[in-house]
């Protein structure tokens, strides 16, 4: 160990004369010091710092790291720039926090950092913005509330709906939030000011069950969204003009879920036991997928997570989430790259969960026949979700268990038992290693997928937990429920 | 003699003035003016009393008018949003109230404790001894009548050996001993021939249960491992209620 150290230090000792030096102490994110403080030249660059740090870490292969002076300013060009910017005196030991970058691991949430009160009725939907910067929640008191994540306090209260806010959905660039209510109205909100953008979109005759935005790589302006409703119709809205572009009718009963796929297809599931595939451009129905014996409750696309986060890469997350910057072309390019990476060669896969206790795995773009039928649950399935790397599939059911299936073939992998009442929602962490589930028994449980065991139990809610979400930067989990408060 | 009907009598006899209706109408319409004149000009105690009475009258009138107003315009009171907000996935489902769930759980537990094999038994006519058992006379002079022979189908089990003939009171003839039963699944409408495991309960008498006599309404245990039925606990042996219609050979499964 000492040998490595001396070799590295010797390299820097060579230009010895007339270089300002500084004492630094490497620290990891938790604040644990690594090695002892030693001095480096002031205009040391990040890659040299990386060499030193990797030598100290003694890993088999060097891990790319990023360095933050005192945990705040990142060392981009050289240490000198940072020091000048911060105005740190060069006599004291400077703590430099290192962060491994490429291979990121999300740590399990372990405790409730705060209980956000403010809603006067049950919280029925909660979602983080694609970058993890904003948090929005919709509730039975007809308001949509935005919360400030750094201080964990309420930021804006947006009034405009006249009935329960059933569903909320962030646009993939994180600049707009769409919310649908039980009076069949959709409002678009600006998260920065909390004000409504544009007009209220009316047109549906019964309550809105799901809202889905057009993916970023198809349209970086985030202009169109699709909404499904109990009246059996799906409407495509133009948010900028505030009007309905297209109405897709065909279902005979309530449409329970609508997903806008990355290939320009819309998938809708309904209580009439069918799933329909539509072309988003002209609203033509391509295919009807039949097979379920009862209501189809929920849909999940393999590319769901990457469509949700758009151009934001969870691996690039920083402690303080930032807004997406860049022109439309850049964002579109990034989003397209990410989408292609996740999608791979094969087309998108679709999973549907139903009241008939089974799930079907479909290849909707190509085939009418399902790829696999996933049985095993003994009560209706409430939510299905692909993991962000699309390798795994989780299904939450009213039979108090969550089942994990293989995302490609649909083979059953394991069952996660622990809840004592119906499991309502699940959320994956950004690295697909952990999953949190919220249930009617008022607890949340964090599961480690690799071992298949319960990682942490998060009690604390006073009543049923209706909504769960894990922020895409992996830092926080939010849960909201019947007891009117949100827990982080 | 009646003294107060002269006005009415006159009206009946001679009718009313020709412009009676007109005058009545005009007088009534003047009433408001006259009332207000009175109210303005009255003084003294009389006035006080009158004003008090008039005040209460006016309040009453206002109330009735308001009620009529409300009846005319039907307003949707959408200020209050209903309680009990639920997310979209729970909207079409009727949630069971908590109390009901708990009481159901308790009832379930009680049922489980009471008896696992409780099958809904239809009320069957209890079969008397003369029907099921036949008296066998024995003895040198055929006078003793303590032996009985079963006249119905029965099940004895694998490890059955007869008691010494001198001592056996109940005879179960070999011809009436059956090992298998035809069982029909009511939903699947399929019939299977399954080996009997035992007679669980004969509704007529516990004696018949111990003997293994199978009559109408008897609950019989049947081995369904061949069917490969699995529940959460593993293999399940169903209780079968035997219906005598099919000559004691067939049964309907439960």
TrEMBL record, chain A:
Subcellular location: Nucleus, Nucleolus
Protein name: Notchless protein homolog 1
Entry-linked Gene3D superfamilies: YVTN repeat-like/Quinoprotein amine dehydrogenase
PANTHER family: NOTCHLESS PROTEIN HOMOLOG 1 (PTHR19848:SF0), WD40 REPEAT PROTEIN (PTHR19848)
Source domain of life: Eukaryota
One Pfam family hit: WD40
GO biological process: Notch signaling pathway; ribosomal large subunit assembly
Residue intervals of the NLE domain: 23-80
Keywords for the protein's UniProt record, in alphabetical order: Notch signaling pathway, Nucleus, Repeat, WD repeat
Principal localisation: nucleus
Signal listed as a keyword: no
Naturally occurring in which organism (per UniProt): Oncorhynchus tshawytscha (Chinook salmon)
WD repeats: 116-157, 158-199, 201-239, 248-288, 374-415, 416-457, 458-488
GO cellular component, one term: nucleolus
TrEMBL record, chain B:
Protein's cellular compartments: Nucleus, Nucleolus
Principal subcellular localisation of the protein: nucleus
Pfam families recorded: Ribosomal_S8e
Residue stretches of biased makeup (Basic and acidic residues): 16-34, 56-82
Keywords: Nucleus, Ribonucleoprotein, Ribosome biogenesis, rRNA processing
The keyword Flavoprotein appears for this protein: no
Chain intervals with Basic residues compositional bias: 35-55
Region annotation Disordered: where it falls in the sequence: 1-84
GO cellular component, one term: nucleolus
Gene Ontology terms describing biological process: ribosomal large subunit biogenesis; rRNA processing
Keyword rRNA processing belongs to the record: yes
InterPro entries xref list: NSA2_fam, Ribosomal_Se8/biogenesis_NSA2
Subunit structure: Component of the pre-66S ribosomal particle.
Family: Belongs to the eukaryotic ribosomal protein eS8 family. Ribosome biogenesis protein NSA2 subfamily.
Function: Involved in the biogenesis of the 60S ribosomal subunit. May play a part in the quality control of pre-60S particles.
Name of the molecule in the record: Ribosome biogenesis protein NSA2 homolog
Gene: NSA2
